[in-house]
C-alpha cells in the first residue's frame, strides 16, 4: 500500500466518501489473525518479529494519509493486541510506543504477549520496563502470555494492580526455579473472577498437599498447565480442587505423595502428563476419567529398560469407561504385545488420531511390527476380536492369558482413524507392509467400511524403498504426508 517514492498514492474517491464506521470495520479486518495462545508459552518465539511492524496493520494504516491515521487512532479495536519481543536488550516495539499503543485501546480487553530471548542484564532491564507498563493496565488484561528468562522480577504490585476482573487466560513460562518471576506476577491472582485458563511453570510454594499461599481460584479453572507438580498425589488432589477442569497438562515429579484409597474422579476431556516410568502405574491406578478423549503421555526414564504398564492401563480405561479419540505416547517403553493389545482394546475403537514417538536408546526393540501393521490393515470382511479388554486380573500382569475378549463382529480395528504419526525408531516391519496398511485406509476406506485416513507422518529407514515409492504416490492423490528418511 505504500509507494517507494516520496509521493503518496492518490486515494480512491470511493474510499474517501465511505463513512468512518465502514472504514473502521475495513481496518479491523486488515489486522493479522489473532494467534491461539498456547499452553507452552515458549512456542511464542517463532511468531514474534513478524506481527506489529510498519508494514502491517495497524501501523501501516497510519502511514497512508492523515484521514486514515485519524480514523485508525480513534479505533480502539485496532490497538487491543500487542506482542513485545525483548532481543539484545531492546524492546520491540520500544517502551514509549507500548505505552502510547495501549492508551489508544480505550477500555477494551487486552491481548498481551511478551517474549524475552535471553537472561542478559540488558534484556532483564528491558523486560522489567515493559512489565512496568503492562502493570498499569491490569484492570483490562484479558489474554496474557509471558515467556521470561529472569532474573526475578521483583517490583511488587500495588493493591490496585492486583485486580484483573477481565483476565481470562494467564500464561507465565520461566526458564528455571532460580528465576521465578511468578512469585511476584502471581499476585495478580488475588482478584480474577473471569480466569478460566491458567498456564504457569510453577505455583510458588505449592506443597505436596496442593496448598499454596497464593489465592489461586482452583474452582473456576477449565484449563490448567503446570510444569512442576511435586508428586503423583498432588496432581490428583489438584484435579479434586478443580471440578470444572476440561484440559490439563502436568509435569509430575517422582515422589508418590499422598494417595487416596479411592480413585480420583474428574471430568477431564484432555490430559497431557510428563511422568517418570515408575510413577505412571500409580497415576493410572488412582485416576478415573470417564469423559477423557485426549491422552498424551511423555515418559521419563533411564537408559535402562523399563516397561509400559499395559494391564494397569487397561484397568484404567475399563474403570473410567472413556473412549479415546487422540492417543499419543512418547518413549513409552512398550513392547510389541503391549502395542498390539492397545490397538485392539475396546475403548480405543473410536480413536481418530494415533501418535507414537520413540527416541530411546538404539538397543531398544521396535514394537511397531508386521503383526501390528497387519492388525491395522483393513479388509472388506475382517472378523477380529477386539480384546484383550481391561478386565485382566492383577495376577495376570504381563500376560494376556485369562483375559476376557470382546467380540465386536466383522469389522476392522480403529475404524475411525484419520491421522497417524510414527516417529523415531518404533518401526520394524517388512518393506511394503506400511504402505499396504495406509492404502487400505486411503484408497479403499469406503470399501473397507472405515473412515478415510487423511494424514500420515512417518520416519522411515532408507531401506524401505517400496514404502517410500507408494506413499509418495498416495501424496500425489491427495494424502497429507510428511515423511523423513534416515
From TrEMBL:
UniProt-listed Gene3D superfamilies: Ribonuclease Inhibitor
Superkingdom of this protein's organism: Eukaryota
Descriptive protein name: Uncharacterized protein
Amino acid at each position: 500500500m505504500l509507494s517507494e517514492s516520496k509521493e503518496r498514492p492518490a486515494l480512491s474517491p470511493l474510499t474517501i466518501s465511505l463513512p468512518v464506521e465502514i472504514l473502521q470495520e475495513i481496518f479491523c479486518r486488515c489486522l493479522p489473525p489473532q494467534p491461539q495462545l498456547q499452553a507452552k508459552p515458549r512456542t511464542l518465539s517463532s511468531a514474534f518479529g513478524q506481527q506489529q511492524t510498519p508494514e502491517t496493520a495497524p501501523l501501516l494504516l497510519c502511514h497512508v494519509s492523515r484521514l486514515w491515521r485519524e480514523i485508525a487512532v480513534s479505533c480502539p479495536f485496532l490497538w487491543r493486541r500487542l506482542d513485545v519481543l525483548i532481543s539484545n536488550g531492546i524492546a520491540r516495539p520500544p517502551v514509549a510506543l507500548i505505552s502510547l499503543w495501549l492508551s489508544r485501546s480505550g477500555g477494551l480487553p487486552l491481548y498481551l504477549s511478551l517474549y524475552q530471548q535471553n537472561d542478559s542484564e540488558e534484556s532483564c532491564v528491558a523486560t522489567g520496563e515493559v512489565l512496568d507498563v503492562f502493570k498499569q493496565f491490569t484492570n483490562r488484561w484479558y489474554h496474557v502470555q509471558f515467556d521470561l528468562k529472569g532474573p526475578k522480577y521483583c517490583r511488587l504490585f500495588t493493591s490496585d494492580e492486583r485486580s484483573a476482573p477481565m483476565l481470562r487466560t494467564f500464561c507465565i513460562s520461566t526458564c528455571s526455579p532460580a528465576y521465578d518471576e511468578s512469585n511476584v506476577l502471581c499476585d495478580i491472582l488475588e482478584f480474577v473472577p473471569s480466569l478460566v485458563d491458567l498456564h504457569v511453570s510453577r505455583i510458588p510454594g505449592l506443597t505436596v498437599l496442593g496448598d499454596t499461599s497464593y489465592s489461586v481460584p482452583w474452582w473456576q479453572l477449565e484449563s490448567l498447565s503446570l510444569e512442576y507438580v511435586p508428586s503423583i498425589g498432588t496432581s490428583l488432589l489438584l484435579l479434586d480442587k478443580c471440578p470444572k477442569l476440561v484440559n490439563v497438562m502436568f509435569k509430575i515429579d517422582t515422589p508418590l505423595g499422598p494417595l487416596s484409597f479411592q480413585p480420583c474422579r474428574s471430568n477431564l476431556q484432555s490430559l497431557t502428563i510428563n511422568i517418570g516410568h515408575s510413577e505412571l502405574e500409580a497415576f493410572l491406578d488412582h485416576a478415573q476419567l470417564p469423559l477423557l478423549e485426549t491422552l498424551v503421555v511423555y515418559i521419563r526414564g533411564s537408559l535402562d529398560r523399563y516397561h509400559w504398564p499395559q494391564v494397569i492401563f487397561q484397568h484404567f480405561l475399563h474403570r473410567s469407561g472413556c473412549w479415546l479419540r487422540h492417543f499419543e505416547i512418547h518413549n513409552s517403553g512398550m513392547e510389541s504385545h503391549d502395542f498390539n493389545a492397545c490397538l485392539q482394546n475396546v475403548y480405543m475403537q473410536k480413536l481418530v488420531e494415533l501418535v507414537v514417538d520413540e527416541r530411546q536408546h538404539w538397543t531398544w526393540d521396535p514394537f511397531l511390527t508386521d503383526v501390528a501393521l497387519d492388525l491395522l490393515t483393513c479388509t472388506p470382511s475382517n472378523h477380529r476380536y477386539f480384546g484383550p479388554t481391561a478386565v485382566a486380573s492383577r495376577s495376570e500382569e504381563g500376560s494376556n492369558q485369562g483375559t476376557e475378549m470382546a467380540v465386536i463382529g466383522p469389522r476392522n480395528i480403529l475404524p475411525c482413524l484419520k491421522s497417524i504419526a510414527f516417529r523415531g525408531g518404533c518401526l520394524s516391519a517388512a518393506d511394503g507392509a506400511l504402505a499396504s496398511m495406509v492404502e487400505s485406509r486411503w484408497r479403499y476406506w469406503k470399501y473397507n467400511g472405515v473412515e478415510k485416513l487423511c494424514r500420515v507422518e512417518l520416519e522411515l529407514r532408507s531401506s524401505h524403498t517400496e514404502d517410500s515409492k507408494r506413499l509418495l504416490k498416495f501424496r500425489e492423490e491427495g494424502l497429507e504426508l510428511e515423511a523423513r528418511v534416515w
